[in-house]
Amino acid sequence: MQNQNSPSLPANISRQELQEIVRSQLLVLLEQEDLRGAKALLVPVQPVDIAAVITELPAVKQAIAFRLLSKDEAIEVYEYLDSNVQQALIEEFKQQDVLDIVDKMSPDDRARLFDELPAKVVRRLLNQLSPTERQATTLLLGYKPDTAGRIMTPEYIALKESLTVAQALERVRRLADVTETIYYLYVTDEFRHLTGVLTLRALLTAGSEQTVADVMKREVVIVRTDTDREEVARIVQDYDFGALPVVDTEQRLVGIITVDDVLDVIEQETTEDIYALGGVESGGDKYFQTTNLFQIARMRVKWLFILLFANTATSAVIANQEEIIERVVALAAFIPLLIDAGGNVGAQSSTVVIRGLNLREVSVKKALSVITRESLVGLLLGVMLGLAVVVWAYFLENSWEVAIAVGVSLLAITLLASVSGSALPFLFSKLSLDPALMSAPFITSVVDVLGVSIYLWVARVVLQL
Amino acid sequence: MQNQNSPSLPANISRQELQEIVRSQLLVLLEQEDLRGAKALLVPVQPVDIAAVITELPAVKQAIAFRLLSKDEAIEVYEYLDSNVQQALIEEFKQQDVLDIVDKMSPDDRARLFDELPAKVVRRLLNQLSPTERQATTLLLGYKPDTAGRIMTPEYIALKESLTVAQALERVRRLADVTETIYYLYVTDEFRHLTGVLTLRALLTAGSEQTVADVMKREVVIVRTDTDREEVARIVQDYDFGALPVVDTEQRLVGIITVDDVLDVIEQETTEDIYALGGVESGGDKYFQTTNLFQIARMRVKWLFILLFANTATSAVIANQEEIIERVVALAAFIPLLIDAGGNVGAQSSTVVIRGLNLREVSVKKALSVITRESLVGLLLGVMLGLAVVVWAYFLENSWEVAIAVGVSLLAITLLASVSGSALPFLFSKLSLDPALMSAPFITSVVDVLGVSIYLWVARVVLQL
Questions:
Q1: Do A44 and B319 touch (CB under 8 A)?
Q2: Where, subcellularly, is it found (chains A, B) (predicted)?
Q3: How sure is the predictor about B283, in pLDDT bands with cuts at 50, 70 and 90?
């Protein structure tokens, strides 16, 4: 279905549609047991798309489809599969087939797979890997999760300073098939200390009589094996590197992290951040793959209870001042409106500050100026919203006192929300707590409790109760 | 300050600290008018860090610091500066210096700069660029913002199928200094139609008598000039490519997009998504650089008014049923608690669904199963929270009827919130509206209005009013 001489996507088809078409055609061919046709169908398809197609097949057909692939393609496709499909295939295959694939995977993908497998299976596989691969894997698994050490790969090219450019290029050619990338080359001394870096571009454009030492850059941006992976992603993003070297505590080169792995890290970290803003404990990126409803409820109930507990204060405040509401029942009508408006303003302020902290656009040093700015904006917004709400309250209840009480309260609540919405993330960042997860419940609670108190106090004053 | 023979970051210093140290030392040297010392200070520092340091200098010192750099480094650093610093420097410099830098920037960075400059300045600069650069720039600026055409660069290497591997490598060497990347090479025919792609790795490891046609892959993943940049980022992330070719409607190759530009796109798009979830219209990534408070208020007031308007319904509902509250004033105490709990549950559901839609982890096809799952989880959570709240309400008001009314309402509200929180994003996605921006206000309003109605109705039944 793809023209051999044109780009693989016709002008009007999306990748999802492509995968859907391949999947249904593949199913038909497998039903007809036309394995040759199925194999031919998959030849021009990208490994990433093959993996997506296989994931969507019925479980019984996945192993059959996978076996259609050539050895090299099978390994590539395997690395792109979802981990539950990877596990299912491991159980399907004969020992030897499994071992071949697992042995040939790149070490970082293998470590990621082993992280998901049951410990028994991991032990068995580890024992049967070739010695070099076993060593590479246990090295990676030895590092804490979410650190550079865990996501790096030891398959890099190291050069000696004394090599000529011609010799270096020859070494690159020889190792090209067994390394993660040949575009970034690292220079080490005899003790494996990292002394320099050069790109393949620099090597190719240098004179062949020059040495590696002439071409390389001695200022190398590095990360350590215990560097947090979020920091790694930030460095790759800021410096626009295609790969980063990872050193141990002795400054010896132990691995590299390539930008494509960083893209995955960024996606997972962003999901965690977004979940945190919404009050959901992250289960990795597995929310929609988790089938156990109790597990999902557990991811969510913790923060709901914390918020519920914090919000009980609002009911205590109101219960304590019930006589005001008894006197002017109309006041009750505006409680949701006021605390919702406060919550919305607080959410806006905290959202931009939390994101700004994450991207290093603002720092705790600048907290005061940011909070001042947010307060002024909050005042502005409070005046605009307050006027609108005064009009509405008068229309609803036909009482200027109630309307003014509501309007003034809204102004005060909006100001309060802006201040707390912008200040609390800084405070939590300073206390080394995650601003995203910690601030939202506190901000809502602060705004609600104080907001309700302000409202009833203002009402008391305005209505001279 | 950096040891020439060791990696540039000592084991215990962060990049922020490094930049801070360089900045303060630089300021001291500039005050003393020691330009030679200042120049030497900057030699081993990465362009990205120099740009960050210059950005933090007082405005009057920025131009002086910038002039310390060599021509090549100046261009690199300039591309990394914030756009307001880029603009300030343009006004500072002599015509010719500005032109030299702007002329030598890579076309995609130049297009990005021109997007920010006043139109008058852009016209003047455009007219004075060299013809090739002017053509490259107007080409890019001719495309709609947020499309592949706008973020691509025309500086790629194209090869003919008939070249031998040796000839191809020679061409790569010759063009290495003027192209964005030499690691991905594109094969075109005499009409510039894209016919294949090959990596430099493949070229280097091929036999030198082979031709490009032997080595290249004919299945190429492409994007078109009008492809949305979010889609471009998704493709690069999924396929792990270092670069993507961009073709026009005739399938002719017009440019490439490299992964480092995609990283920037991802960051900006993520900020937009996060802002949308928080109810903030995005001003690009300029929230903290905007100094006009009225502009900021304008970014935020629109959604606040929409939400306020939607929330007026809650006050109408309560005002309409004031007699219930008159009869049992204790009921008013729990209004904030109930709608807050509903809002939190709704926010959780919508957050995970919106993020899932964004990452293509769920699609509208699966809407029914996702909503069902969320409803069941909502029921589970509602039971847990409801029991807790019944205990609290009884403790506060000493009335079983009120406690039961509150508990049953919480259960109903939680279920309602889960359903609307998961369903509305799918609905808006189906209507081609942005789920993130559209759903949150509707979900809060639906939960609040219906929640309050449910509460007063349940109270009426339980208390037999």
A1: no
A2: Cell membrane; Membrane
A3: low
pLDDT digit string, tens, across residues B339-356: 888 888 888 888 889 988
Out of A304, A352, A448, whose CB is closest to B345?
A304
A398: left (phi over 0), alpha (psi -120 to 50) or beta: left
Chain A residue numbers with beta carbons less than 8 Å from the beta carbon of B393 are: 315
Architecture of domain B293-462: Orthogonal Bundle (1.10)
Helix (H, G, I), strand (E, B) or coil at A447: helix
What integer best gives the mean pLDDT of chain B? 86
Is A64 part of the contact surface with chain B (CB cutoff 8 Å)? no
* Res. B3: pLDDT tops 70: no
Record the pTM: 0.79
Distance CA B337, CA B343 (A): 10
CATH superfamily of this structure's domain A158-259 = CBS-domain (3.10.580.10)
Separation CA A89–CA A77 (nearest Å): 12
Which residue in chain A is spatially nearest to B193 when comparing CA positions? A6
- Best B216, B304, B376 member to test A by mutation, with max A CBs in 10 Å, is B304
Q: Are A447 and A420 in contact (CB under 8 A)?
A: yes
- B260 contact residues in A (CB cutoff 8 A): 240, 242, 259
**CA quadruple B72, B76, B77, B80: dihedral, nearest 10:** 170
DSSP conformational letter for A244: E
Do A400 and A394 contact (CB within 8 A), yes or no?
yes
- B42 CB-near residues (< 8 Å, 6+ apart): B22, B26, B50, B68, B69
Residue A283 is predicted with a pLDDT of 64
What part of A 90-109 touches B (C-beta under 8 Å)?
A: none
Say what the pLDDT of residue A2 is.
Answer: 33
Asked if domains B15-146 and B293-462 share a fold, the reply is no
pLDDT along chain A (465 residues), means of 10: 38 74 90 89 90 88 87 86 83 75 85 81 82 82 87 91 93 90 93 93 90 92 91 89 91 92 88 83 70 79 82 85 83 88 88 86 86 91 91 88 91 93 91 78 82 89 79
Which DSSP letter does residue B12 get? T
CB of B330 within 8 Å of a chain A CB? The answer is yes
Q: What is the fold of B15-146?
A: MgtE N-terminal fold (1.25.60)
Inter-chain CB proximity A315 and B444 less than 8 Å: no
Q: Note whether A333 contacts B318, CB cutoff 8 Å.
A: yes
Kindly list the domain boundaries of chain B, sorted by start residue.
Answer: 15-146, 158-259, 293-462
B271 at the A interface (CB within 8 A)? Answer: yes
pLDDT at A10: 54
Cβ under 8 Å to A: B residues 357-386: 359-363, 370, 373, 376-377, 380-381, 384-385
